[in-house]
Design goal:
Length: about 425
């Protein structure tokens, strides 16, 4: 199978790594990819959100499967263009991708499908925002209605901060605060059926103890030893399948990963948000544990042939990923600093490094930081404690001036089962 992966981050490196390890994959390409994917695939420089450029490349490569990593190409209609050209594509079309591209649309779908979620109001003016903030009270939850790379949400006790965020966006969704721990669940969908992957938990705040500003994600782990029994089956029955059914009823069948961000509240499971693609950094740990060859699963979704009773197999043990971020991330990440120690990190038993925001300085040959989240360091082990130990030992080998990372990824979960 000839496969093309679109995107350039840690999620795409994780996808490429999983596909590279699949014996069914005979040729692997990434566009644009990164220095990490270049070690296992052929990189091609193009804008992954340009439908014509992507379909042209897919035709030249005779791609039998295109896997769309980020959300921007989905909302730009790259999936539509590929399908129109007869290329199997893992990723929803533009209309279905609105489930991430518009928080208001997602709420509309959930209401129609009877999916449990937070009460919310869509606001387009200061007066509407003020009224909604007063109605729901603190903690205030304000979400940019459009794409915001995982950073368009403000949760705060400060009404002025909440109102300022609302005014900075064209349109926002203001909703009630959901208590309880959050869980990410990916479901692979072929438009009619869905298959769940392992649930994971990520860490959005920049600093230890869930302090600091919101980010795209500073780390993740799986499995979740504290998750209630039957959680996955419940979510598939009450969240994922009703959502697929509603989208199909609207003649926009959903093909790809439906990412359900969930809160396990005192009143039961509630959907915090939907994303139209694999999450980053949860993908790094979920795919690490996946034993079933991934290419066949993704292609089955792309061609509408997913077995409804299929259940992937999983490696035993646990995986933890820790994000190494550039100085001043997420505000104004410093770019261009040299990265060292990757070979030493990869040599740590049970650990490996995935590139996220890196590039090669062609004049000097140096690997440098080119984004906010620079690396995802994955540790694996028999349990969460062993996986954490491997990940943090590898992080300690990496040099990047001014970089920072959280030291508490999966700590509470590991200590709870020790």
């Amino acid at each position: 199978m000839r496969v093309l992966v679109l995107g350039s981050g840690g999620r795409e490196h994780a996808l490429a790594r999983a596909l590279h390890r699949d014996p069914a994959v005979t040729a692997l390409h990434c566009a644009p990819g990164n220095p990490g994917t270049a070690e296992i695939a052929d990189n091609h420089q193009l804008d992954p959100s340009d439908p014509a450029a992507v379909t042209g490349l897919a035709a030249r490569l005779r791609a039998e499967l295109v896997v769309i990593g980020p959300e921007a190409p989905l909302v730009a209609g790259v999936g539509d263009a590929l399908r129109a050209a007869g290329v199997p594509c893992f990723g929803p079309d533009r209309e279905a991708a609105r489930i991430e591209g518009s928080k208001a649309f997602a709420k509309e779908i959930m209401a129609a499908a009877g999916v449990p979620t937070a009460d919310a109001r869509v606001c387009s003016s200061r007066a509407e925002a003020e009224e909604a903030l007063d109605a729901f009270g603190p903690p205030y939850v304000v979400k940019d209605d459009g794409l915001a790379a995982g950073k368009g949400v403000v949760v705060t006790e400060d009404r002025d901060v909440a109102l300022a965020h609302a005014e900075a966006c064209d349109r926002v969704v203001i909703e009630e605060f959901l208590d309880g721990p959050e869980v990410s669940l990916f479901a692979l969908c072929d438009g009619r059926h869905a298959v769940p992957l392992l649930p994971a938990q990520d860490f959005k705040r920049a600093l230890d103890g869930d302090a600091g500003p919101n980010t795209g994600g500073m780390g993740a782990y799986t499995p979740l030893p504290w998750a209630p029994e039957g959680l996955v089956d419940e979510v598939m029955a009450t969240v994922v399948q009703p959502t697929l059914d509603e989208l199909r009823r609207r003649e926009t069948p959903y093909v790809g990963t439906l990412y359900a961000g969930l809160a396990l509240t005192s009143k039961g499971v509630r959907v915090v948000e939907f994303n139209a693609r694999f999450g980053d950094p949860e993908t790094q740990v979920v795919l690490d544990r996946l034993a079933t060859p991934v290419a066949t699963l993704l292609q089955a979704c792309a061609i509408g042939g997913l077995a409804p009773d299929a259940r992937p197999e999983w490696h035993p043990g646990a995986a933890v990923t820790v994000v190494v971020a550039a100085e001043d991330y997420p505000a104004s990440p410093v770019k261009g600093d040299t990265i060292t120690g990757l070979a030493e990190a990869d040599a740590v038993d049970g650990a490996y490094v995935l590139h996220a925001g890196t590039s090669l300085d062609f004049d000097s040959g140096r690997l440098v930081a080119s984004g906010g989240r620079v690396l995802s360091v994955v540790g694996t082990g028999a349990d969460l404690a062993a996986a954490r130990a491997a990940a943090y030992e590898a992080v300690g080998k990496i040099g990047l001036r001014g970089s920072h990372h959280r030291t508490d990824i999966a700590r509470a979960a590991a200590e709870a089962v020790s």
